[in-house]
Q: What sequence folds into this?
């Protein structure tokens, strides 16, 4: 895990289970989109957060992502596209959110604060400047959960200590892809 | 074009020609990535900028994007996925940057200021807060050019009045995908 003296230890997780996977609200697993792994890894490297946990309990999906990571980190892709190897360096496959939390505990020596995103304001809602300030002041570690599909399922949301609201512009349209939302959120928290 | 009284008229262009299309610096056309059209359209709608010009002189590529736009704006996709129809509403296909500029002139009644991105500082460099302030103060229109591949070719860069620097985080890694960079840039200029 990369750390610099004046920065908090922040990791992110791209969560494929348990998430809301359709417009009817059913909870389950989504498929991993390989492009999202690349895009989030590049955003994570840009903003100095690590690891990027890719969370899926599906063994076939883990195998797929494992092959992609091997190709770019050690295989032909490592020489052909070194910046991709560098971006994917800190990607860690996890079978569950708890497995990601356990790994982060081992790396940092303490249980992280967990931050999710939510469409509605609630008791655990936090704004971007407030979260950035807490991260600077708090010496502990943090895990930001990004749900795919229609967002984190209730079981995953129950593990969150804080919720960021959705990324909004001046209007009402609220349908950014997860790869764009993650880049904007990391920029709001860690951009110069 | 959507405008609100207190906001400038800002449009963006996803440029596939003339761009630097490989690591050796050759200038030409890149292929359109359909996913980028969706992602940039969603970011544009989120931040209230329009139109999104998709610039390519290649007729086969224009036909491909035209089919995708028809599917989601008028075809089966319009009913199946209305937010996608809404996002793609303001996408305009253009054969060149000049064609996009002409269209924007017709819509706004004046020639826009043109902003590109550049990796290096130069005489036309401008920071994000400075550009946001100029956009608020200037009653004219603006066109932000986003080059695909390795960035805008010299001929396109020569049309720019200003250049924004690359989106950076705290470290040296500078390889955000264009779809992430556009979302972050629009958030820095127009986010709440």
A:
């Amino acid at each position: 895990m990369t750390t610099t003296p004046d920065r908090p230890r922040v990791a992110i997780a791209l969560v494929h289970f348990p998430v809301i996977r359709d417009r009817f609200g059913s909870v389950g697993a989504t498929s991993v989109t390989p492009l999202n792994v690349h895009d989030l890894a590049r955003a994570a490297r840009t903003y100095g957060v690590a690891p990027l946990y890719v969370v899926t309990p599906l063994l076939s999906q883990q195998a797929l992502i494992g092959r992609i990571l091997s190709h770019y980190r050690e295989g032909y892709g490592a020489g052909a596209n070194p910046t991709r190897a560098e971006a994917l360096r800190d990607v860690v496959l996890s079978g569950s959110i708890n497995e990601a939390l356990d790994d982060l505990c081992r790396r940092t020596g303490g249980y992280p604060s967990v931050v999710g995103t939510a469409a509605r304001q609630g008791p655990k809602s936090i704004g971007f400047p407030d979260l950035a300030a807490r991260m600077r002041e708090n010496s502990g570690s943090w895990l930001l959960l990004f749900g795919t599909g229609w967002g984190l399922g209730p079981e995953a949301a129950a593990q969150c200590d804080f919720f960021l609201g959705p990324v909004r512009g001046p209007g009402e349209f609220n349908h950014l892809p997860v790869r764009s939302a993650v880049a904007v959120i990391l920029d709001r928290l860690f951009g110069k």
About this structure: Chain B has eight helices and nine strands. Chain B touches chain A at residues 2, 4, 7, 35, 38-39, 42-43, 45-48, 83, 86-87, 167-171, 173-177, 179-184, 186-188, 190-192 (CB under 8 Å). Residues 1-5 of chain B have pLDDT under 50 and may be disordered.
